[in-house]
Amino acid sequence: MKMDIENKEKLLSFHRSVRDHALVMPQAHMHDRHEMYFLEKGKIRYVVGNEIYILEPGDMIFVPKGELHKTTGENDGGVERLLFDFSDEAVGEECREYIEELKRDKLVRFPPEKVYKLQDIFRKMEHEKKHQSKGYVQLQCLYLREALILISRYRLKEDRTEASESYRIIQDAAKYISANFNTDLSLTFLAKKYAMSPGHFSKLFKSVTGAGLSEYINMARISAAEKLLLDAPVSVTAVATACGFNDSNYFAAVFKKLKGITPKKFAMMNRL
Q1: Is 160 left (phi over 0), alpha (psi -120 to 50) or beta?
Q2: CA neighbor of 120 nearest in space, from 156, 75, 150
Q3: Number of CB atoms found within 10 A of residue 237's CB
């Protein structure tokens, strides 16, 4: 019976959380399943890869499996959110196109009059989880597929948020870091590139992304390392060097901290 429950949980899990303040993740992390985060109350800053998003009530963010991400509070008010994480099997081949669409445009916003239709589906999923009647996991998966279709239908095509100049600068810096992970990314260099003092750039970067500069650089480098480890049988030392790490032992420690597994073991498990 325990094994059956564990197998079901591998398909899909659903969580509602109500907090009197926003949850600040101490560090970025990733999962081996996709994640959808639907905000019902409050305001949240979400970092996914090299993109920075601001979520308001009724917004949803999609985090593809294997993508580094981190959330941090945007204000001191309460936060209520729904969190789904699910495997490819829960979605099924027939709905794979909707996942690909969400990978391209991770932030989803809806016309206010359509939000309640999605919330109704979410309540049905929550009801099934609570009562666990016969076939509840299969029904939850059907509701998830319905939600994916409606998300694609209802999503607004334009972004209504006007990012401040500070956000645009740091967004550009985050993209630069991800594209140039194996180059000089010292605070001195980046501050000069964006015409700021090192202290101001460092403070602004942390304020916008919720992550310190070194932490974010490590996120970008580990993300690149993961792809290299999957692509070809190369040594850990070679991967470390290719991703901008001067010390392979430090690289292994950072990789394990973010991925929960050593780079060598990660490569062995994913090449089977």
Answers
A1: alpha
A2: 150
A3: 14
Pairing of strands 34-41, 79-86: antiparallel
What tokens does 236 get? Answer: 């850990």
Q: How many helices (DSSP H) and strands (DSSP E) are in the chain?
A: 12, 8
User: Which of these, 176, 35, 54, lies nearest to 103 by C-alpha position?
Assistant: 35
Strands 44-48 and 12-19: unpaired
pLDDT for 10-69, tens place per residue? 788 888 887 766 556 656 777 889 999 999 888 888 888 778 888 888 999 999 988 878
Contact between residue 25 and residue 256 where contact means Cβ atoms under 8 Å apart: no
CATH 2.60.120.280 domain residues, the chain: 2-154
Residue with tokens 């430090």: 250
Q: Which two tokens stand for residue 164?
A: 């401040």
Q: Which CATH superfamily is domain 2-154 in?
A: Regulatory protein AraC (2.60.120.280)
Question: DSSP characters for 204-247?
Answer: HHHHHHSS-HHHHHHHHHHHHHHHHHHHS---HHHHHHHTT-S-
- Asked whether 20 and 72 are in contact (CB, 8 A), the reply is no
Token readout for 250 is: 């430090």
What is the structure's pLDDT at 4? 40
3 state SS for 29-87? ECCCCEEEEEEEECCEEEEECCEEEEECCCCEEEECCCCCEEEEECCCCCEEEEEEEEC
